[in-house]
Amino acid sequence: MNTFGRNFRCTTFGESHGKAVGVVIDGCPPGIGLTETDIQPYLDRRRPGKSPLESARQELDRVEILSGTFGGRTTGAPIALVVRNQDARSGDYDALRDVFRPGHADYTWQAKYGLRDHRGGGRSSGRETLARVAAGAVAMRCLAPQGIEVSGRVIEVHGTVEPEAMEAEIRAARDAGDSVGGIVEVTATGCPPGLGDPVFGKLDAAIAGAMMGIGAVKGVEIGEGFGAARMFGSEMNDPITSSGFASNHAGGILGGISTGQDIVVRVAVKPTPSIRRTQRTVDTTGAERDVSVEGRHDPCIAPRIVPVAECMLALVIVDALLEQRKYRG
Amino acid sequence: MNTFGRNFRCTTFGESHGKAVGVVIDGCPPGIGLTETDIQPYLDRRRPGKSPLESARQELDRVEILSGTFGGRTTGAPIALVVRNQDARSGDYDALRDVFRPGHADYTWQAKYGLRDHRGGGRSSGRETLARVAAGAVAMRCLAPQGIEVSGRVIEVHGTVEPEAMEAEIRAARDAGDSVGGIVEVTATGCPPGLGDPVFGKLDAAIAGAMMGIGAVKGVEIGEGFGAARMFGSEMNDPITSSGFASNHAGGILGGISTGQDIVVRVAVKPTPSIRRTQRTVDTTGAERDVSVEGRHDPCIAPRIVPVAECMLALVIVDALLEQRKYRG
Amino acid sequence: MNTFGRNFRCTTFGESHGKAVGVVIDGCPPGIGLTETDIQPYLDRRRPGKSPLESARQELDRVEILSGTFGGRTTGAPIALVVRNQDARSGDYDALRDVFRPGHADYTWQAKYGLRDHRGGGRSSGRETLARVAAGAVAMRCLAPQGIEVSGRVIEVHGTVEPEAMEAEIRAARDAGDSVGGIVEVTATGCPPGLGDPVFGKLDAAIAGAMMGIGAVKGVEIGEGFGAARMFGSEMNDPITSSGFASNHAGGILGGISTGQDIVVRVAVKPTPSIRRTQRTVDTTGAERDVSVEGRHDPCIAPRIVPVAECMLALVIVDALLEQRKYRG
Amino acid sequence: MNTFGRNFRCTTFGESHGKAVGVVIDGCPPGIGLTETDIQPYLDRRRPGKSPLESARQELDRVEILSGTFGGRTTGAPIALVVRNQDARSGDYDALRDVFRPGHADYTWQAKYGLRDHRGGGRSSGRETLARVAAGAVAMRCLAPQGIEVSGRVIEVHGTVEPEAMEAEIRAARDAGDSVGGIVEVTATGCPPGLGDPVFGKLDAAIAGAMMGIGAVKGVEIGEGFGAARMFGSEMNDPITSSGFASNHAGGILGGISTGQDIVVRVAVKPTPSIRRTQRTVDTTGAERDVSVEGRHDPCIAPRIVPVAECMLALVIVDALLEQRKYRG
Questions:
Q1: Domain ranges (residues) in chain D
Q2: Is C175 exposed, middle or buried (0-12, 13-18, 19+ CB in 10 A)?
Q3: Contact flag B3-C2 (C-beta cutoff 8 Å)
Q4: Is C106 on the interface with B (CB under 8 A)?
């Protein structure tokens, strides 16, 4: 399944070292102003190679709109966005052709499909998220006129929460040929109450699925999240006053439906599985091998998850907004 | 959206104090032995009123199979399961007709739909999970012959992890007219590798959506979960040996696809929002009110979430199994 | 797949001789007045046993609303409708347990699922359409306030078009232990322009799928239909004037989207496959058998298709109306 | 909705005079041999400008595979296929910018979306079918190893059935600045029994939806089709013998499920709406206008519908094949 969303449906395609990565957005409302320059800044934020703490892969990641707009506005037709791959140094991966990298999808993809594009993780590469970000940029264009904004940041790296300490952790891991995990928080402001369905289309369930669907994410929480498990009901419940909710332990969602408060989501990001340190693994014949993943990798992927998580949240919200319109007068 | 699943599609219906709660399962393979006695034990486990620490609502919760079986076996036709409500003391809720209970879906349902069945939470009641459990029981019948088993337990209540301490916490909360949260862990054993799709149909994403879709759940994690954010890559990555994975930090899923190891999921359960202690809220006119929720409520809902979470995991797995069959030879 | 519709989703269940037939409607807007008395007249129109030219099976077909309404209005929750089977003379079918009736789904169901409920056709019985009619009745309740009405009639039986001649054809077929086919025309008036999607969600494609999905239907046409194949473009094209379209050869749909004119659909109904005349067939062992289908059957099923076709058209239109709302301002 | 299929999901995009037309196929099984040269012949068959009786638009229609294959085989990842537009003489359409061409989607698209790409019909152009044909070519690659073949032909033009007479009708219409309709028949051989679902996923319903979803198609029939309405049951029912069905009036489908016989479908194609003869219409201000559609158009579109109808049938069958696999042992 390579489609996300019920109303604002995004179908992504492309492999890390194939010809291109892209997305088709089906269900975008007509009349939204949209050109490449609206999308490009989001891709630039996500792009690797911007700092010494990130992968050195150099991609311009220039997006092209192939369809769905006319005169700079969306028409209601599907919007195809394509980014050509350029700096795909597939040769880096020749040594890994027959080896299952620990912590990656190599083994499981092979188990599922019986063959795989080993170059850079193929379809399971983080590069696929480029397509999600492109789609998310279009979602943001739909949300802005409604006064809805989404923003995220890294709030923790390897247990530290101060910016300088976080950066030091990443640097130390890189120097040790290792990697570290972190936590990203994403917040949406300006959402109206009423988004989300009460049973299987809960807004928080959609968010959880969207976030856990980002590679490297191992946990998702809304509002107090796991902290709620250690609270009393009298602490957790948000009192309601004539001027609105008095607190937001719920993270903006009750019974699966938005309350109108900020929607607050946190995701746990595991350490980048690609590390230079030697690891034990097997090859496709089952023989044991030692592997050191050279290539170009981020020692902490959390910072680059930020724009992806923002975009996924934007996609969930725009989808719920369109859904909600069906049931208005 | 009241349907769960793409292949083993479960559509639930019913309100807490309406005539019945039920589910239609579409996509169950033919030839599975199935009678009411296969389903009833699951409903009995979920049923309230079994201990003084649970809601005292007395429901026999007798399930009836209305369709989809012939001679005690499934036929491939949709399976409709219905449980009639009996001990619905709607009068308990008359005082709450116009009041939004804090921590409940009352306010958000009203904001979304403009009218609501206030009796016992209506459609947003935990009683709806009865239908999920009935469906999950059928899923379990499909999984058993494949050697797949699902089981769960409460691993933490209000920060305590010893069974006696957990029970004491619940008792203390009840006596104080309050409630407490907890953590439930669910494990699936026997899953083959290859379940789940690599991008938007990730097995962990489906699990996260399923779990966050249970009322009161505020967080979900797989394997090391939030702990992964505090680890090095060299700790988190599971080495692969010729006899299989050497550890299971991943919780049985890599790149969204099952590895063949145990699938391990934990969910954070918030304290039951219905508490006797007085809370501030507003009524449907916006006027401020004090509310004390009497009725019959569990001071900690985590134990009753266990069978629901098990069933949701079973539903996700059977759905992925059917999906996977499409791409075999 | 037992669900129809993307927005107004109807999941039907039940077999001809099982306990009940029913439907769950998910996606009905809230606030629609709905009680059993709104639905019953539609079921009564569809009910067998009303004339000597119809099956003599006697069913009261009393519908019960199990969920989704409160105080006589829909709440936005799924609406479960159930009709208990009563006059199921399964014994009539004992002789047919192992025989594949020609023209029925007996052989193909067995080929697909490996086992089947042979009683009265099981799930493939025309009795399943009762659930569609119940759902259609709810759809009609949604359409009426929009000024949309759907009505149908038999326009041809066995090549004759005069009412008396049509009745005579049916009578003659019945007396000969045979059956005859016919054509049903259904029209929707009052549809706004703009319903339907331009590519794969075309309104006419949805109608064609809905109609061909009624058992016994072998052809569907819109507007001029097959007649269009014999026309010039200058005849077929409907001129547009300042007061609207000057003709309606298109049958109310252009490019898959409603024009605002009447939507006109015709369906070809094959002769009822159950006939008393002896036919050649095989049993489940592959041995050749002669079969005469006794039981209680309509010698021409076209009249009883009328309410079903009306309801399917209503379901398609209400679904398109909800879809269209997503893309308004 | 720009996606077709449940298992072999094809999402098309692109406008007649935009940058490109394409499709993303999600759900194609892994391991299928696939390169551009497998797809190109299908596009060449569909391509305009091959005879004086066809549109003179000159497009090379070169397909490029952007993703989803590795080493010439499908990997299970989504397959993106793109064809760049080249000979888009949008200037031809300047005069039509504000005019609704009779028989086209111009008026209805405008009514639906409020704005439109007027150039060559934009998204509603027949050029979109290029994407369906590209997807169908991939479907054919999946069907061939199963021994399933699909082929079609024009069997009637403007009421004539002899090849020479059909060609003469087209020529005469062209010379008169007019157009004519026709009938296309498509047959699938080699389908196993058991494809299709008995209620809403009927194989014939899926076919009807697929065919009516082709622009210009106004009617669909299976097997005897509308002829069945004029038959006796004793004529229409196909007797079953120990060596199989003795006839195929059903067109290969009973109760919505394939019988194993040839699947036979006919579609009614209306005359091309673009004609040189003057027609009455209105412009976007509602003012009456006379219009003569110059441009490059086929006087009878039926021949060019043939590969499209073949491909849609192939897509329906491959989708049903994948669906059916879920319910095998």
A1: 3-328
A2: exposed
A3: no
A4: no
